[in-house]
Design brief:
Elements (H helix, E strand, L loop, with lengths): L1 E3 L5 H10 L5 E3 L11 E3 L4 H10 L3 H9 L4 E4 L1 H6 L2 E3 L13 E4 L9 E7 L6 E7 L3 E5 L4 E8 L2 E9 L2 E4 L10 H12 L1
Parallel strand pairs: 1-2, 1-3, 3-4, 4-12, 5-6
Antiparallel strand pairs: 6-9, 7-8, 10-11, 11-12
Bound molecules: glutamine.
The site of glutamine has 12 residues, from α4.
Amino acid sequence: MGVLALQGDVREHAAALRRVGVTVVLVKRPEQLEGLSAIVLPGGESTTLSMLLESSRILEPLSAWVNAGRPTLGTCAGLVMLASNIEDGRADQAKLSGLGITVRRNGFGRQRFSFETSVEIPSLGSPMEAVFIRAPRIVDVEQGTEILGVLETEAGAEAVCVQKGNIVGCSFHPELTDDVRIHQLLVDIARCA
Ligand code: GLN
């Protein structure tokens, strides 16, 4: 499996994948996408990632990958990249549109800049500790995209983990805890794909 290795928490994702028994390729060049069974788009800064994807010429093959519905996990900035609509983004930032969601960048506001809390992901068995860092807020989920996990907020239950076909995204950082269930989910999806 690949981890997009242009920026952000690449090492942590690679370590989590190794913990679930996966051989990891750190993807820095377009030709490295060939032959992968899945790819992780890590957190970092989506506007920077967007520029680096263009300059490294990975944007086009990665768009084709996502368009073909191949197994992909995007976390935090990676989720922003996978959204079909981005609020508070840069007008020219790349959008892969693998998930039918609208995200608002840094949507949890100043007070809740970064926080750790428990989220409910019923299909993965139990609550999960989740680290949010300048996290995108999922403000709309379109038909065809399934909500896997929710966070209880003052506004009610909000989606924080979603899936459309073989593409999964979460607004938190599953690579920063010891819980590897999200990475295991990607492995299971890749096995069935
Ligand atoms: N706020 C960042 C962005 O919009 C995401 C932060 C993160 O990945 N931890 O790209």
